Fold this sequence. Notes:
This protein is an alpha/beta fold. The protein has helices spanning 51-66, 74-81, 85-98, 103-114, 118-127, 153-156, 175-188, 228-241, 278-282, 310-316, 331-339, 360-368, 376-381; strands at residues 20-25, 70-73, 129-130, 142-144, 157-160, 163-166, 193-194, 210-214, 217-222, 244-251, 266-268, 273-276, 292-298, 301-307, 322-325, 346-349, 352-356, 372-375, 392-396, 413-417.
Amino acid sequence: MGIGNKKMCKVNVTSETGRLRAVLLHRPGVEIERMTPLNAAHALYSDILNKPIVDGEYANFCGVLERWADTYYVEEILEELLHDTGIKMQLVSDSLLLEGYDTPQASVLMQQLLDLDHVELAKALIEGFENPVWDRVSENRYLLKPLYNLFFTRDASSTVYDRVLVNSMSFDVRKRENLIYDAIFRHFFKVDTFNAMSWDHEARTEGGDVQIASKDLLCIGQGIRTNAKGIEYLAQTFAKERKHFNILVQELPLEPESFIHLDMVFTFLGQHECMAFEPMLKKNGLFAGKHTTLISIDNGKISYREVDNMVKGLHQLGWDIDPIIGGGNDPWNQLREQWHSGSNFFALGDGKVVGYRRNTHTIDALDKAGFAVLKAEDIVSGKVDMKSYDKFVAAFPGSELPRAGGGARCMTMPILRDE
């Protein structure tokens, strides 16, 4: 099975910074226009977005990735999968079950959805399926709710070494995303999947909290999206499979919403550099009293000990890594730029990253650290060849996209990296 002339690839990610070979994306679609001021909070947004501007910003973002790696798009894979009657019936049935339909309602609606061709059904599963008798007043316009957050491909699934963690999402509005990703990875990429809820129904993990530091180390955020039971599931899983393994856990504030995931305050830029939110390192402000815990696995035995912070924890594990401070030196600039995903970078390779240009103090800090600052528009047009730089940040414009609550790492799900 393949899409056009694109070669299939294996699934394997053993670090955050190995040379990216393949990535899964989703272009923000009609679904984001189906938010209103009344349902935006339910959709986990703090505002509604201007799609024409989103389209232009995303074009520069995905244009950079397309010039670097094989890019797969969720909607294209889903359309292909829906040619298979068995997969089609399973996705529709499971979607209606998650939406809470009882048997009489589900049977009628299921037939309506199954009558759609593969392209129309893919759209309905992503963009929502409209109620034909909507009264133009009530909130039940969509019988199948739009997946407003699907373009954050990072969250609902995570490539963890040679398989995929299908994450157990914390909010109902995002749970149907799991069905699509599970189908994509099991049936299209032919890879094993695993899930924390199969171990404990209350266990939660999300991809923004899961960072693959190395073959024997995960960095995990614990907060409003990933909980202690989800982390315990990962510890128990690797204790059964590995003689030696480590999980470095950073506790996150439960509010405001800009701290939903670890990658909003910490991301790897390369083997020896990371982007970090200074209050997280100094344990002050919103991070006062927040724990950093090293979980060590040794021949099946799991132990826990407190460390000072993420960077010092990495140092204790033998990492030669230094932080670059998001937002620069001014605490107010740090807060402002963290709010708009200033620490949320995605590594194309060692010292080769993508991020929002709007966070000017953060970009300046990267510039001072030796990263060439490249405009995404120049890369996409062919004016600049990023492959000729040893160290760079591909900075893309973002005024609307950041208002959705995520950045470059949130919008990418790596499938394959060099080891």
